Amino acid sequence: MTERPARFGNRHTRHVLASFHNIGLFEDAIDLLAQMSVLRRQIAMMASHQTVRVHLAQLYAGTEEPDDGTELLTPLFADRHDITEGRTLAIGAPVYVGTTTTGQPIVTTKGPLALSLAATMRGTDFDKGLASLLPGRHASYLADELENGSILLGTVVSDTNQEDLVTYLLRKAGGLEVRAHSIAWPEPARPARHVGHFAARALPSRLHIG
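The structure assignment produced for this chain is given below.
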């Protein structure tokens, strides 16, 4: 049964998260969400720095290499504002949200999930930060997916009806481990509306055409 929050209120955002190994399915998922009137500013992408740098170079220009001194939420890429084959897929340029225990820097488009992650971090340990927001097994699964080149798609939902619809659409599009979670807002932060565009063409190492 889907986990339900006590309420959809000002102190929490409700996120539906899914992992994609196939770039075509990832594109289709965003198209489906847009067709069902999910606002593009509600959609976020998360991936390893290497996945974005190597495989999404047509979408983002690297502006900085992360190191031990890189602060959380530092922009590491500039959005090229490319629209490929008429498909505008996601929102904004990626910011740094920590490094996994195996040394993989992780980035996500700026928004509620990025701000919540940054607020829970002790240092830049991404795995612990994610585990503080999500149930342990799902947090571990998603961290492993990111390290292995998958792209995560996250969508903020406003009520249980939209949550059920988005969950159905992501599963229909081929998303793996589609789950909904209530994530507490850091105080006094509130969502940043940062809108940009990218279109996905190249394949991260774990993505495949099938």
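Interim note for the steering committee: The chain is about 30% helix and 25% strand. The beta strands are 12-20, 43-48, 60-62, 77-79, 94-99, 105-109, 151-157, 176-184.
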